[in-house]
């Protein structure tokens, strides 16, 4: 049964869970719990509850396989990244993507190599629009 997608963003915990589901491509509560426990110990029931909430929000789908539910992403990672960045740009940078990029470029942790990668991406995009 497919739920209506909730356009809200994931909480920090939900994003942690969703990242595991994206990386695995899907899995049972036990599969997801095993991955999460590599970073921080979690209770089975807590993980099951969060996954159910994420399904209700429309971020996951589930299907019964044998005696377990298998959860899969309902939202592709790239789509969620795009939505999150638009939200961030809108709320924190007054809807100006250039301001977001300017803040990123000003970050002292951004290396020259990273800046060169950004330049290459921008040049590629600008080249695509010129055609």
UniProtKB/TrEMBL annotation:
Alphabetical list of Gene3D superfamilies matching this protein: Penicillinase repressor domain, Winged helix-like DNA-binding domain superfamily/Winged helix DNA-binding domain
Q: Where are the transmembrane segments?
A: none
Tell me if Ribosomal protein is a UniProt keyword of this record: no
GO terms assigned for molecular function: DNA binding
Identify the SUPFAM superfamilies for this entry. Winged helix' DNA-binding domain
Q: Which GO terms describe its biological process?
A: negative regulation of DNA-templated transcription
Q: Which InterPro entries match?
A: BlaI_family, WH-like_DNA-bd_sf, WH_DNA-bd_sf
One Pfam family from the record: Penicillinase_R
Source superkingdom: Bacteria
Q: Which UniProt keywords apply?
A: DNA-binding, Transcription, Transcription regulation
- Give the record's family classification: Belongs to the BlaI transcriptional regulatory family.
The molecule here is called BlaI/MecI/CopY family transcriptional regulator
Tell me the organism: Leisingera caerulea (Phaeobacter caeruleus)
